[in-house]
Amino acid sequence: MAVHDGAEVLDITGPLSVFSAANALHAQSGGVEPLYRIQVAGESSDAVVRAASGVRLLTDAALGQCSGIDTLLVAGGPVARQAPQALVDWLAEAAPLARRVCSICTGAFILARAGLLEGRRATTHWLMLEELRAFSPNTDVQADALHVKDGPVYTSAGVTAGIDLALALLEEDFGRDLALNVARVLVLYLKRPGGQSQFSTTLLAQIHEGGTLASTIQWLRDNYQHPLCNEDIARHAAMSPRNFARVFKRETGETPAHFIENIRLEAAVKRLEETAQALETIARECGFQSGEHFRLTFSRRFGITPGQYRNRFRSGAWR
Question: For residue 253, how many other CB atoms are within 10 A of its CB?
């Protein structure tokens, strides 16, 4: 794990907890040698790295001392775009020698600086997607993925998505059973449903509390079950439809239609997990035009059908 001052501590400790838990379970089952040998590397050995949260970490090795690397992970953080040039230069040299190289969250910007995202698909934190597109125009930035694999290069979305990536790497290395057991130990989904956009509507509603659209966003969350058109929403916001659409996009990063769709999907996911309601009932009560419209929208967003989602993630209370 390559670290730097200002890194996000969860970008470091989250993925490494997955690998250390795998080692612990392997040892409990009689394994002698650890599955992973973990090193935290920085500009020098035994150096103190101050994370963005103020937590201080001690490195195991200097970057230049690392050899025979199997999996190279790069932590992100608020200052990832300004990470030391020495880290970028070392990464450009070391990455081709590793079996795979992975970034956590905004660590994608460090990979991009090292030229590792040229012509590849990648992702990063949902708040930084447009910046990554501008920063690395030859990268195909994926907006809704929790993690993306393109050849030997892996990128993950915001912060805790690094844990999702680590579980995927573990499953790739040692199979589903061990990855599932690690997920259970850490109280996680093995494969978290949906992409990072599933979090955006709730977060945006909180971000815009007190803002010019706060009351309208709350009104949308209270009325998503009903048919809603741009004119109705604009009327609630006391704006013309054209001006409202422009302001909404500027302040939330989404169109009103996409925002409403996300709210409806969030509500549907909750019902799929917690109730035994028929899919047609869920579709109707969550504001979808029909059961078929619900199925198509859900499958497009999450990559699985509502029925498949329910089978994987429904609550044990009514299995």
Answer: 15
Query: Residue 146: which domain range?
Result: 9-192
Number of domains the chain is built from: 2
Q: Would you say residue 175 lies in a domain? A: yes
As a whole number of angstroms, the distance between CA 105 and CA 15 comes to 11
Tokens encoding 245: 């659409």
Question: Please, are residues 97 and 75 in contact by the beta-carbon 8 Å criterion?
Answer: no
Q: How many helices (H) and strands (E) does the chain have?
A: 14, 10
* Single-letter amino acid code for the residue at 122: A
How far, in Å, CA of 246 to CA of 70, rounded?
48
Cα 274 to Cα 318: distance, rounded to the nearest angstrom: 8
Residue 73: strand pairing partners: 102
**Residue 42: helix, strand or coil by DSSP?**
strand
Q: Which amino acid is at 121?
A: R
Which has the closest alpha carbon to 93: 66, 132, 120? 66
Q: CA-CA distance, 51 to 241, in Å (whole number)?
A: 45
Q: How many residues does the chain have?
A: 319
Backbone angles phi, psi at 304, to 5 degrees: -140, 160
Residue at 4 is within a domain: no
- Partner residues linked to 35 by β-bridges: none
Structural tokens at position 60: 């195991």
Helix or strand holding residue 313 (H, E)? helix 306-313
d(CA 140, CA 137): 8
What CATH number should be reported for the domain holding residue 228? Answer: 1.10.10.60
Q: 189 pLDDT band (50/70/90 cuts)?
A: low
- Per-residue pLDDT tens over the stretch 141-180: 988 788 899 999 999 998 889 999 999 999 999 998 898 8
Q: What is the pLDDT of residues 105-133, one digit of tens each?
A: 999 999 999 999 999 999 999 889 999 99
Report the alpha-carbon distance of residue 82 to residue 92 in Å, rounded.
Answer: 16
Element (H, E) at 141: strand 140-141
Please report whether residue 121 resides in a domain: yes
